[in-house]
Specification:
The structure is a single chain. Helix 1 crosses helix 3, helix 1 packs across helix 4 and helix 2 crosses helix 3. By secondary structure, this protein is α/β, with parallel strands linked by helices. The strands form 3 sheets. Strands 3, 4, 5, 6, 9, 10 and 11 form a 7-stranded mixed β-sheet that branches. It is globular. The N and C termini lie far apart (about 60 Å). It has 3 domains: about 80 residues, Winged helix-like DNA-binding domain superfamily/Winged helix DNA-binding domain (Arc Repressor Mutant, subunit A), CATH 1.10.10; about 110 residues, D-Maltodextrin-Binding Protein, domain 2 (3-Layer(aba) Sandwich), CATH 3.40.190; about 100 residues, Periplasmic binding protein-like II (D-Maltodextrin-Binding Protein, domain 2).
Length: about 300
């Protein structure tokens, strides 16, 4: 056997992605590069690791066994690196954070300097909807989660990072309709919603019910970016977090539609289990944020005060 660490990592990613194309995207490699390394890895085994049925790639039972072994090898090599850095008195290890999808406009600003200061930290950040974020927190799969609504069913500690404002927005292409009033607008154009489980959708539905607003038609999209692009195109209106539409407002692709009771205001909170024993990395991150979050807010999010 003469396989390389790189081949092990590539095969493990192919196993997880069930696709050479997706594995290439995750590893920031070209598809041919992944295919070549996968072929070289396979050549060292007489039993197939994968098989293609139709156009779908499948991992064989033997392939899964090799993937388990590969994962253990990679974990041990990572552990060696972390131990080496620890002896050098460097902060080293993994930091796992799950964030609600709109939080991708927030969390990187609070992590960038910290991660760059500590080169031994491997960051794993899962961007998904609120329901899955809460599940990963409940299962103790992550160090922290970033949410705009504190999960009631989980006993957590919270650190507010930045304010979250939600406004009713529409395309500037539909500007002439603004004078007709919000109720008339919503009787003529669809409302664009995030998927079930999204905190933005929950806040939007609660507001609509409270104000008894008419809904001509509902369109559901599964990401904040998709909603934003659909609204820019004039497909309808939506209630969206200000944090994700900065450039579209500045470029006058979107406009805020004033309405009583808006904006809906919450906070983006970093949360963790109250019972969790935080790792040295997690403890250091909290110390860093306590010292630097006001500066980070001022440098990156002061523009929100204009709205």
């Amino acid at each position: 056997m003469n396989y390389t660490l790189n081949q092990l990592k590539i095969f493990l990613q192919v196993t997880e992605s069930q696709s050479i194309t997706k594995a290439a995207e995750e590893l920031f490699l070209t598809q041919p590069a992944v295919s070549i390394q996968l072929k070289k890895f396979q050549e060292q085994f007489k039993i197939p690791l994968t098989e293609v049925v139709g156009r779908q790639l499948y991992i064989t039972d033997f392939g899964y066994e090799i993937a388990k072994a590969a994962e253990k090898i990679i974990q041990e090599i990572d552990a060696i690196s972390y131990r080496s850095m620890t002896y050098e008195k460097l902060l080293a290890g993994k930091l796992k954070i799950s964030i609600a999808s709109t939080g991708k406009y927030v969390m990187p600003y609070f992590l960038s300097d910290f991660i760059n200061m500590h080169r031994g930290i491997d960051l794993i950040m899962d961007v998904t909807n609120k329901s899955l974020v809460v599940k990963s927190l409940e299962r103790n799969e992550v160090d922290f989660s970033l949410v705009s609504v504190i999960p009631e069913a989980v006993d957590t500690i919270q650190l507010p990072l930045v304010q979250n404002k939600l406004f009713l927005i529409g395309s500037t292409k539909l500007k002439s309709n603004k004078k007709k009033g919000v109720r008339t607008i919503l009787q003529q154009y669809p409302l664009l919603f995030r998927e079930l489980g999204s905190a933005t959708r929950n806040a939007m539905e609660e507001f609509i019910a409270k104000k008894n607003l008419p809904v001509f038609k509902k369109i559901e999209l599964t990401s904040n970016e998709a909603v934003k692009q659909a609204v820019i195109a004039g497909l309808g209106y939506s209630i969206m977090p200000l944090i994700g539409i900065k450039s579209a407002l500045r470029e006058k692709e979107l406009e805020i539609i004033p309405y009583r009771g808006l904006p809906i205001i919450t906070d983006w909170n970093l949360v963790w289990l109250k019972s969790k024993k935080l790792s040295p990395i997690a403890q250091e991150l909290l110390k860093y944020l306590a010292q630097e979050k006001d500066r980070i807010n001022l440098e990156n999010f002061s523009w929100c005060d204009e709205y």
